[in-house]
């Protein structure tokens, strides 16, 4: 049984970074304007892309399902406003690859008329966990902390696990990003309602909200909200401000002193972690019937005139958010989705906001300097001192560079959370995280190839076994036919009957041969 520490621990490694959150928090949270056109990607989450259920020309209402999830690890997509579908096709999306992907484009009618989504639950705290999970799934809710993992899957720890601790991640440790802080201050009751629903769905024994200790306003709002709700069993735990204390494994360590096993999951310790924004989305869906069609986005950086937090419909072009924040300053040099440590560089501000867009950082050269030329590793070990996952980044780099993908896994590559601490302190300016991402991508590709080869081998083996079975059956039938022909003491009629039986057996045998040929053709000759 896992227990919360009286005093949270400091995570291993990490860096003290300039927070830079005040810029966006000085202005109040406000609604972004509804855009004339919204581009809603089909894949805004981890897992299979959603499949469109609308076509060009269809009229849609706000909150209406427009793409369904085809798989367990997937999430449906809903219309962010009412209007007309003007296209279903590939458009540029915010992704590190910079490629285009399937989207549904909606021209807004400006009326913002809502559909009856059927998501609202009347007695949610008496509902079966399975029903809550289904509604959360139908609402298209994914982790809003940045990863985008379908929330319904994390609400299902399986019958073999009980949940000792529901940990709400409100640490928001990356510099510049303040959307969770704005949410906790402005939508406190939604956050608390969402946490209570998740606690009920998981039947969690304890609940804690991990929040960085440099967010006194958010802590005060949460305390007041819990008091007003008469809630005494949800503990707020301020954790020391250090990047990346908001990493899932790091936060669990800070609050419990326990380490999630290498390549394991928090549930292995009896812990389930959800982002604070995800909790609010659950409350919106189950108490107000609104699927995940909007989120808070921090628009900040020296490159934008009036940094602030905006409540934005999914699919809104990022350029409109910049415009609503007073436009670019002359200092902008790069646009990032996310923070300066883990964000992805965007090729254009015409890309749409997606469910995982927590921040739009219009960075100046000083905030996101261009990469300096890399030099050879000098084995100074500065990288391992700051690694929060207690890895050996220089060894990972070495094996990634040498494309030794077996050895790199011995050094726990997949425990790397790509926080970027190692790269930031490296005096040789080696783009370490890029090497780790490259190695992970290669290993996943090799794994896919291996699975494909295994499947082809299995098909080949099944085919040989089937041919063998059929050959044997054929021989048996022929033997029976010969036997019937030769049967001694048979009269004239008996002889005829035997001839007919033998002929029938021959026909059956020929049919079986023909069927086998056809089937082999259909398998594509993968043998
Ligand atoms: S990017 Fe990976 S290896 Fe580097 S410090 Fe972070 S967790 Fe460690
Ligand atoms: S910090 Fe850079 S130079 Fe130093 S050991 Fe790590 S990779 Fe090598």
Provide mean pLDDT, rounded. Answer: 92
Number of helices: 15
Cα Rg: 30 Å
Ligands present: iron/sulfur cluster
- Just name the CATH architecture of the largest domain: 3-Layer(aba) Sandwich
Instruction: Report strand %.
Output: 15-25%
Distance between the termini: 52 Å
DSSP E strands, number: 17
Residue stretches low in confidence (pLDDT < 50, at least 5 long) are: 521-527
Explain what the structure shows.
This protein is an alpha/beta fold. The protein folds into two domains: 22-312, 3-Layer(aba) Sandwich (Rossmann fold), CATH 3.40.50.11540; 371-527, no CATH class. The chain has 15 helices and 17 strands. It has helices spanning 22-25, 129-138, 151-154, 179-186, 188-202, 216-228, 248-256, 276-288, 318-324, 382-386, 393-401, 407-410, 421-425, 432-485, 492-522; strands spanning 30-31, 37-41, 51-52, 59-60, 65-68, 77-78, 83-92, 100-108, 165-170, 206-212, 234-239, 271-275, 294-300, 308-313, 332-337, 344-345, 359-364. The strands form four sheets. The protein has a six-stranded mixed sheet, with helices on both faces. Strands 2-8-7-4 form a four-stranded antiparallel sheet, with no helix packed on it. A four-stranded parallel sheet has the order 11-10-9-12, with helices on both faces. Helix 2 packs across helix 5 (188-202) and helix 4 packs parallel to helix 6. The radius of gyration is 30 Å and the shape is globular. Mean pLDDT is 92; it is low at 521-527. One iron/sulfur cluster (SF4) is lined by residues 386-389, 391, 393, 396, 416-422, 432-433, 436.
């Amino acid at each position: 049984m896992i227990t919360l520490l009286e005093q949270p621990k400091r995570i291993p490694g990490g860096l003290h970074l300039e927070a830079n959150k005040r810029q966006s928090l000085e202005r109040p949270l406000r609604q972004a304007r509804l855009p004339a056109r919204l581009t809603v990607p089909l894949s805004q989450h981890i897992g299979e892309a959603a499949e469109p259920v609308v076509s060009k020309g269809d009229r849609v209402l706000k909150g209406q399902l427009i793409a369904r999830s085809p798989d367990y690890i997937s999430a449906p997509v809903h219309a962010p406003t009412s209007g007309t579908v003007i296209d279903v096709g590939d458009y540029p999306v915010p992704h590190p690859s910079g490629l285009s992907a399937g989207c549904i484009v909606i021209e807004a009618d400006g009326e913002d008329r809502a559909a009856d989504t059927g998501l609202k639950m009347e007695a949610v705290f008496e509902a079966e966990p399975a029903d809550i999970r289904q509604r959360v799934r139908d609402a298209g809710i994914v982790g809003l902390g940045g990863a985008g993992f379908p929330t319904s899957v994390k609400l299902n720890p399986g019958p073999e696990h009980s949940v000792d601790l529901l940990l709400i991640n409100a640490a928001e440790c990356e510099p510049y990003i303040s959307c969770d802080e704005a949410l906790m201050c402005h939508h406190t009751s939604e956050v608390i309602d969402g946490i209570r629903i998740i606690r009920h769905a998981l039947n969690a024994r304890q609940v804690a909200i991990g929040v960085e200790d440099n967010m006194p306003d958010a802590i005060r709002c949460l305390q007041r909200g819990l008091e007003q709700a008469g809630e005494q069993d949800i503990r707020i735990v301020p954790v020391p401000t250090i990047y990346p204390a908001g990493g899932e494994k790091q936060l669990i360590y800070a609050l419990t002193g326990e380490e999630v096993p290498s390549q394991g999951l928090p549930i292995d310790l009896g812990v389930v972690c959800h982002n604070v924004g995800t909790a609010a989305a659950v409350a919106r869906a189950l108490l107000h019937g609104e699927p995940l069609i909007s989120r808070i986005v921090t628009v900040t950086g020296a490159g934008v005139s009036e940094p602030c937090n905006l409540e934005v419909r999914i699919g809104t072009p990022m350029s409109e958010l910049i415009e609503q924040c007073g436009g670019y300053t002359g200092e902008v040099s790069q646009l990032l989705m996310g923070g300066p440590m883990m964000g992805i560089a965007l090729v254009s501000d015409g890309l749409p906001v997606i469910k995982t867009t927590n921040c739009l950082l219009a960075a100046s050269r000083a905030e996101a300097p261009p990469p300096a030329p890399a030099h050879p590793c000098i084995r100074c070990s500065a990288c391992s001192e700051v690694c929060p996952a207690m890895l050996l980044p220089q060894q990972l780099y070495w094996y990634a560079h040498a494309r030794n993908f077996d050895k790199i896994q011995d050094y726990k590559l997949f425990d790397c959370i790509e926080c970027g601490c190692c790269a930031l302190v490296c005096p040789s300016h080696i783009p370490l995280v890029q090497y780790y991402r490259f190695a992970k991508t290669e290993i996943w590709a090799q794994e896919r190839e291996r699975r494909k080869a295994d499947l082809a081998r299995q098909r080949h083996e099944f085919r040989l076994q089937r041919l063998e079975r059929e050959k044997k059956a054929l021989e048996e039938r022929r033997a029976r036919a010969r036997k019937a022909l030769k049967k001694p003491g048979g009269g004239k009629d008996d002889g005829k009957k035997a001839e007919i039986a033998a002929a029938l057996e021959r026909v059956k045998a020929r049919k079986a041969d023909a069927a086998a040929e056809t089937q082999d053709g259909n398998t594509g000759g993968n043998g």
